[in-house]
Write a sequence for this structure.
């Protein structure tokens, strides 16, 4: 399963990228974000690994992120592994003009483990894209409201 989301943000590319990379602000635009813990390699360097924890209702969601490439603002690609699924996400930022930036996210799910995740992906693929777009829209709002 593959999808692409994008949003135009009314802010210069330098500001957008700096805020997007700022782990201290993740909780302000990613619902349920709890923590990120780097445990291998230099943060943001190719091969670096981190554990990311989200709280979704009563459920805790743990992801292992591995950086595959990172030359922002052009592109950052990471592998995300979860007990129920594996995906890659490629994030790009494009300068529209001096005060506008396009934020693009391409997500490719490569594996679903278990009956329920496979059914959800098959029956409700839009649910995954909807969540990605929601976080991107929240990031847009956060960025445009941040001085």
């Amino acid at each position: 399963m593959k999808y692409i989301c994008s949003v135009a943000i009314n802010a210069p590319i330098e500001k957008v990228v700096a805020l997007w990379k700022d782990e201290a602000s993740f909780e302000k635009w990613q619902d349920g974000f709890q923590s990120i813990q780097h445990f291998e390699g230099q943060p943001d360097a190719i091969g670096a690994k981190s554990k990311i924890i989200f709280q979704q209702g009563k459920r805790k969601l743990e992801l292992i992120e591995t950086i595959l490439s990172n030359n922002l603002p052009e592109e950052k690609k990471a592998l995300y592994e979860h007990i129920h699924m594996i995906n890659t996400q490629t994030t790009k930022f494009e300068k529209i003009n001096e005060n506008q930036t396009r934020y693009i996210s391409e997500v490719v799910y490569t594996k679903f483990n278990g009956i329920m995740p496979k059914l959800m992906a098959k029956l409700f693929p839009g649910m995954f894209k909807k969540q990605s777009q929601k976080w991107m829209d929240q990031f847009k709002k956060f960025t445009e409201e941040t001085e």
User: Anything to note?
Assistant: The chain has a mean pLDDT of 92. Residues 2-30+71-145 form a domain with the Alpha-D-Glucose-1,6-Bisphosphate; Chain A, domain 4 fold (CATH 3.30.530.20).
